Amino acid sequence: MEKGIARPDDLTPKRKGLHGVAANHYLKMLGLTAATVAVDILLLSPAFVGVTIGGSALETALGVTLLTASAIALIYGSYKWLYKAPVVLTPDRIKTREDFEDALAPYSRIRALEEDVSMTLEQMERMDKRKATLLKVLEQRFNPAEMSFAKFAAVAGEVENLFYLNIKSILNRLGVFDAAEYERVMTRKSARYSPKLLQEKTAFYTEYMAYIKHAVGTNEEMLLKLDKLLLEISRLDDMESSDIERMPAMLEIDSLIRQTKYYKQ
Questions:
Q1: Which long-range contacts (CB under 8 A, 24 or more apart) does 71-79 make?
Q2: Which of 182, 228, 235, 244 is least surrounded by Cβ atoms within 10 Å, i.e. has the fewest?
Q3: Where are the domains of the chain?
Q4: Could you read off the pLDDT of 18-32 as tens digits, one per residue?
């Protein structure tokens, strides 16, 4: 999680497809297939290298080896990217930025969750950009050894940690989501429940979805605080280190941190 913070002119959301990770696997497979075909054509075509199977023993061995290697590469790629069941990462096993993306990806295929999960994946990209840009701006305005640099960098790091802690909390809730039951309850298609029980289940799922949306909104608020901080830093002239805590954006971030520091996963 050591990447991004974005400049103010780079705040337009870049929507990923709801199946962005799956699409990426198809693109990788397409790239592997194209590369394999290109190599085979280059080496076997008479117009290029012209290795001939059935010619000399060396050419035959080389040609057979090439075709075998091509087949193995395509079979392995198909298994890895198209057929292999994805490893489900539980929140306690998540260690890296990529782990968060992999853990969220399966939920983007659930209709009731796809919008919020897609938004969360997009927010992660924007957090990467914002942190990178903030650190770049700080390096331009301050010496890394200065107290001002350390204070700004520390608060940005704390916001990022809270951001990912919030995503872990989202993942904990997603892990117990029953998509089929949700559809039955929210569309009133189940006759197995009494009206009273159906009402209670509806209230439960309404509260559940409200929590997910609130968590996504909290992360959006964190990104906005960083946007404001970056804008204020870009307007700074010389200032005392003691003045940093009184900057409006720093006060807002401090308030946000205090509100969420006891946030439970």
A1: 73/32, 73/36, 74/32, 74/33, 74/36, 77/28, 77/29, 77/32, 77/33, 78/29
A2: 235
A3: 16-84, 87-265
A4: 345 556 667 777 888
